[in-house]
C-alpha cells in the first residue's frame, strides 16, 4: 500500500494585504508534518477499472459502503472507464471483439486512473479476468501491477478466494454471457479445482443490456435451474449484472452461499488491503469472513 499522504497538501494561507488590493501581499505555508490524507478517502482510496458501458459496479460498491457507513468511514472509490465503442455481445465473435477493445484501451485507462493516486486497484469487470483460465488471470494482474506498482483484485481471483472460504467444491453459475464466455468461465473454475455442475448464460445482446436484466429473471434462473442437489454454492459472474441484494436474500432462502461477483471483488480488495471490517446487508461473505 503506497504512501499517498506525505507532502500533501502543498498549500499556503494569507497573512497580509496591501491597502486597496483584494489580493494578499504575503503568505505562509501550512505546517505539513508527515502530511495529511485525502479528506474523504482517508482509510483507503481504491481505484476501480470498469468498462464505459458498466452502470452497476459503482452503484453496487457505494451501496455496500453506505449501508455500513460508520464502519466504512474513509473508504472511497475512483472509477476509470475503458472505452467500449462497440458494446454489442449478440454472438461469440462480438464477445471476442469486446475483449480486443478491452485490451486496446486498458493501459490508457489505467494511466488515467493513476492520476488520482489510488492505493489499490479493483478490476470492476469479470469476463476479461476469466478468459485464458487461471494463467490468463495471472497474466492480466501482472501486466497491471507492472504498469502501476499496485496490487490488483480481479473477479476471477475474488471468486476463488470466496469459494475457498466456504469450503465449496461443486458450484452452479449464472452469467450474462454468450456461450464462448460461459465456456471460459467453466474452464477457469475447473482449472482451479471446482466442479461446475450447471452454468446458465443469459446471452445478453450487448454490454449495456446486462444492467437492464430484471432481478426477478435472475431469481427464477437460480431457484428453478441452478439450485440442484449436491451443489455447495452458487456464483454470479458479470459485474454489470447487479445481484448484491438478491444474493443476500437467496442465501437465507436456499441455505447456500450465493456469491455475487461485485460483493466478492469488494470483499477481496478490502481484505487484501488490510481492511477487516465485516459488513451487514451484503451477504454471508462479508458477514463471516
TrEMBL record:
Domain of life where this protein originates: Eukaryota
InterPro entries assigned: Iso_Racemase_Enz_sf, MaiA/AMDase
Protein name: Arylmalonate decarboxylase
Originating species: Haptolina brevifila
PANTHER family per the UniProt record, alphabetical: BLR3294 PROTEIN
Amino acid at each position: 500500500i503506497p504512501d499517498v499522504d506525505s507532502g500533501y497538501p502543498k498549500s499556503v494561507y494569507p497573512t497580509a494585504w496591501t491597502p486597496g488590493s483584494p489580493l494578499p501581499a504575503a503568505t505562509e505555508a501550512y505546517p505539513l508534518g508527515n502530511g495529511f490524507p485525502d479528506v474523504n478517502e482517508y482509510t483507503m482510496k481504491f481505484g476501480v477499472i470498469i468498462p464505459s458501458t458498466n452502470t452497476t459496479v459503482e452503484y453496487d460498491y457505494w451501496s455496500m459502503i453506505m449501508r455500513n457507513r460508520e464502519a466504512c468511514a474513509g473508504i472511497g472509490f475512483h472509477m476509470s472507464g475503458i472505452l467500449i465503442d462497440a458494446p454489442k455481445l449478440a454472438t461469440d465473435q462480438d464477445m471476442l471483439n469486446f475483449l480486443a477493445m478491452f485490451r486496446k484501451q486498458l493501459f490508457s485507462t489505467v494511466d488515467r486512473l493513476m492520476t488520482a493516486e489510488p492505493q489499490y486497484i479493483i478490476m470492476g469487470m469479470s469476463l476479461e479476468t476469466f478468459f485464458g483460465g487461471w494463467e490468463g488471470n495471472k497474466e492480466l494482474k501482472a501486466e497491471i501491477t507492472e504498469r502501476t506498482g499496485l496490487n490488483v483484485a480481479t473477479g476471477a481471483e475474488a471468486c476463488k478466494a470466496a469459494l475457498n472460504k466456504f469450503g465449496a467444491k461443486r458450484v452452479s453459475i449464472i452469467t450474462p454471457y454468450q456461450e464462448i464466455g460461459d465456456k471460459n468461465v467453466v474452464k477457469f473454475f475447473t482449472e482451479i479445482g471446482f466442479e461446475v455442475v450447471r452454468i446458465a448464460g443469459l446471452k445478453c445482446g450487448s454490454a449495456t443490456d446486462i444492467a437492464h436484466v430484471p432481478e426477478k429473471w435472475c431469481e427464477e434462473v437460480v431457484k428453478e435451474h441452478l439450485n440442484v442437489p449436491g451443489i455447495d454454492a452458487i456464483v454470479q459472474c458479470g459485474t454489470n449484472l447487479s445481484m448484491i441484494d438478491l444474493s443476500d436474500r437467496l442465501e437465507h432462502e436456499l441455505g447456500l452461499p450465493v456469491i455475487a461477483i461485485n460483493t466478492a471483488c469488494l470483499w477481496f480488495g478490502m481484505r487484501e488491503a488490510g481492511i477487516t471490517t465485516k459488513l451487514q446487508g451484503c451477504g454471508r461473505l462479508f458477514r463471516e469472513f
